[in-house]
Amino acid sequence: MGKLRVSSFAVSIDGFGAGPNQDLENRSGSAGVAIMDWFFSTRTWQHMHGHDGGETGIDDELAAQGLPGLGAWILGRNMFGPVRGPWPDESWKGWWGDEPPYHTPVFVLTHHPRGPQRMAGR
Protein backbone atom coordinates (compact mmCIF):
# COMPACT_ATOMS: atom_id res chain seq x y z
CA MET A 1 0.00 0.00 0.00
CA GLY A 2 1.26 3.47 -0.86
CA LYS A 3 2.01 6.15 1.65
CA LEU A 4 0.46 9.62 1.70
CA ARG A 5 2.58 12.50 2.88
CA VAL A 6 1.25 16.02 3.08
CA SER A 7 3.90 18.71 2.88
CA SER A 8 4.44 22.20 1.58
CA PHE A 9 1.02 23.31 2.78
CA ALA A 10 0.54 26.65 4.48
CA VAL A 11 -2.46 28.13 6.21
CA SER A 12 -3.03 31.39 8.00
CA ILE A 13 -3.60 31.43 11.74
CA ASP A 14 -7.37 31.53 11.11
CA GLY A 15 -7.20 28.36 9.00
CA PHE A 16 -7.38 29.66 5.44
CA GLY A 17 -5.00 28.72 2.62
CA ALA A 18 -5.83 31.82 0.56
CA GLY A 19 -7.07 35.32 1.24
CA PRO A 20 -10.49 36.68 0.28
CA ASN A 21 -11.29 38.25 -3.10
CA GLN A 22 -9.40 35.84 -5.33
CA ASP A 23 -9.38 36.88 -9.00
CA LEU A 24 -7.05 36.92 -12.02
CA GLU A 25 -4.90 39.69 -10.51
CA ASN A 26 -4.83 38.15 -7.00
CA ARG A 27 -4.20 34.41 -7.36
CA SER A 28 -4.23 33.78 -3.62
CA GLY A 29 -6.76 36.49 -2.83
CA SER A 30 -6.03 39.90 -1.38
CA ALA A 31 -2.97 39.52 0.87
CA GLY A 32 -3.12 35.73 0.40
CA VAL A 33 0.46 35.40 -0.84
CA ALA A 34 1.70 36.72 2.52
CA ILE A 35 1.16 33.18 3.85
CA MET A 36 3.97 31.96 1.59
CA ASP A 37 6.30 35.00 1.59
CA TRP A 38 8.92 33.00 3.50
CA PHE A 39 9.02 30.45 0.64
CA PHE A 40 9.17 32.72 -2.42
CA SER A 41 12.62 34.11 -1.67
CA THR A 42 14.25 30.71 -1.06
CA ARG A 43 16.75 29.14 -3.41
CA THR A 44 14.43 26.11 -3.62
CA TRP A 45 11.50 28.19 -4.94
CA GLN A 46 13.71 30.13 -7.33
CA HIS A 47 15.14 26.90 -8.80
CA MET A 48 11.62 25.41 -9.17
CA HIS A 49 10.88 28.32 -11.50
CA GLY A 50 14.12 28.14 -13.48
CA HIS A 51 15.86 31.08 -11.78
CA ASP A 52 19.31 31.30 -10.26
CA GLY A 53 19.97 32.56 -6.76
CA GLY A 54 17.58 32.77 -3.87
CA GLU A 55 18.15 32.87 -0.15
CA THR A 56 19.66 30.01 1.81
CA GLY A 57 19.24 29.34 5.51
CA ILE A 58 16.55 27.71 7.64
CA ASP A 59 13.64 28.64 5.34
CA ASP A 60 15.40 27.16 2.34
CA GLU A 61 16.34 24.04 4.30
CA LEU A 62 12.69 23.48 5.26
CA ALA A 63 11.53 24.12 1.69
CA ALA A 64 14.12 21.71 0.28
CA GLN A 65 13.12 18.99 2.75
CA GLY A 66 9.44 19.29 1.87
CA LEU A 67 9.77 18.75 -1.89
CA PRO A 68 11.89 15.65 -2.68
CA GLY A 69 10.06 12.42 -3.35
CA LEU A 70 6.70 14.01 -4.16
CA GLY A 71 4.74 11.72 -6.44
CA ALA A 72 1.96 14.23 -7.10
CA TRP A 73 0.56 17.57 -6.02
CA ILE A 74 -3.03 17.92 -4.85
CA LEU A 75 -4.46 21.38 -5.39
CA GLY A 76 -7.76 22.88 -4.38
CA ARG A 77 -9.84 24.31 -7.20
CA ASN A 78 -8.93 27.87 -6.21
CA MET A 79 -5.21 27.06 -6.35
CA PHE A 80 -5.74 25.93 -9.95
CA GLY A 81 -7.68 28.98 -11.06
CA PRO A 82 -10.46 31.50 -10.54
CA VAL A 83 -13.10 29.63 -12.56
CA ARG A 84 -16.14 28.83 -10.39
CA GLY A 85 -18.91 26.33 -10.96
CA PRO A 86 -18.99 24.04 -13.99
CA TRP A 87 -16.09 24.46 -16.41
CA PRO A 88 -17.25 26.65 -19.33
CA ASP A 89 -14.62 24.93 -21.51
CA GLU A 90 -11.17 23.40 -21.05
CA SER A 91 -9.13 26.40 -22.17
CA TRP A 92 -7.98 27.37 -18.65
CA LYS A 93 -4.67 25.60 -17.91
CA GLY A 94 -3.99 26.99 -14.46
CA TRP A 95 -2.37 30.15 -13.15
CA TRP A 96 0.98 29.05 -14.57
CA GLY A 97 -0.04 28.64 -18.23
CA ASP A 98 1.41 25.89 -20.41
CA GLU A 99 4.27 24.86 -18.12
CA PRO A 100 3.42 24.42 -14.43
CA PRO A 101 6.24 24.51 -11.85
CA TYR A 102 5.26 21.19 -10.28
CA HIS A 103 7.05 18.73 -12.62
CA THR A 104 4.92 15.83 -11.41
CA PRO A 105 1.24 14.89 -11.80
CA VAL A 106 -1.24 17.40 -10.33
CA PHE A 107 -4.74 16.54 -9.13
CA VAL A 108 -7.28 19.33 -8.71
CA LEU A 109 -9.99 18.74 -6.11
CA THR A 110 -13.32 19.97 -7.43
CA HIS A 111 -16.98 19.00 -7.59
CA HIS A 112 -16.96 19.64 -11.34
CA PRO A 113 -15.33 16.90 -13.46
CA ARG A 114 -12.86 17.76 -16.15
CA GLY A 115 -10.69 15.61 -18.38
CA PRO A 116 -6.95 15.23 -17.84
CA GLN A 117 -4.53 17.69 -19.44
CA ARG A 118 -1.00 16.88 -20.61
CA MET A 119 1.32 19.79 -19.83
CA ALA A 120 4.98 20.64 -20.35
CA GLY A 121 7.48 20.50 -17.50
CA ARG A 122 6.88 16.92 -16.51
What report would you give on this structure?
There is one protein chain. This protein has 122 residues and is α+β, with helices and mostly antiparallel strands. It is 19% helix and 7% strand. Strands 1-2 form a two-stranded parallel sheet. The chain is globular and about 45 Å long. 7% of the residues are buried. The model has no long low-confidence stretch (mean pLDDT 80).
Calculate the mean pLDDT score and round it: 80
Which radius of gyration do the C-alpha atoms yield?
Answer: 15 Å
What is the count of helical runs?
Answer: 4
Largest sheet composition: 2 strands, parallel
Task: Report, as a whole number of angstroms, the end-to-end distance.
Answer: 25 Å
Q: What percentage of amino acids are in beta strands? A: 5-15%
Structural class: alpha+beta
* Strand order, sheet with most strands: 1-2
Beta strands, count: 2
The unreliable regions are: none
Return the string of H and E elements.
HHHEHE
The level of helicity is: 10-25%
Task: Give the CA-based shape.
Answer: globular
